[in-house]
User: Fold this.
Amino acid sequence: MKLTEHFTLEEMTRTTVKGVDNTPSPNALANIIRVCRWLEMLRKEWNSRYGDGDDPVIINSGYRSEAVNKAVGGAQQSNHLTGCAVDIRACGLEQALRYAVILLDISDQNREAFDELILEKKGYVYWVHFAVRPALNRRHVKCINDN
Assistant:
């Protein structure tokens, strides 16, 4: 099911956890669509500034049911549980930083807050955790490094 021009429900609910239902509720689906709208803006801006015109934004993790979140070691109050968060794959620190700058610019230009923008690294793998809630967004920005 296509949620926006470039993002599908399948990629926003994909999990490596087998045999566990990962179907979002109607409220979670509305949250996922809200996040996808931000991802569309990120994709468009990335391609206009740095990309080849049609570079995808790749999602490592989106919505997680409670069972999936527990199986992958997610935080108990994770925004992934409500469909408000995604982990965006980055090809190194530079791309992660550029994604973060674009998301900050989008927030400023649209005068719309996000909840979390976290640059994360585990080993040699980088990603951007991004969350936007329907309300009470905190504009929380930080970096996490496993080293």
User: Anything to note?
Assistant: Strands lie at 59-61, 85-90, 116-122, 125-131, 140-145.
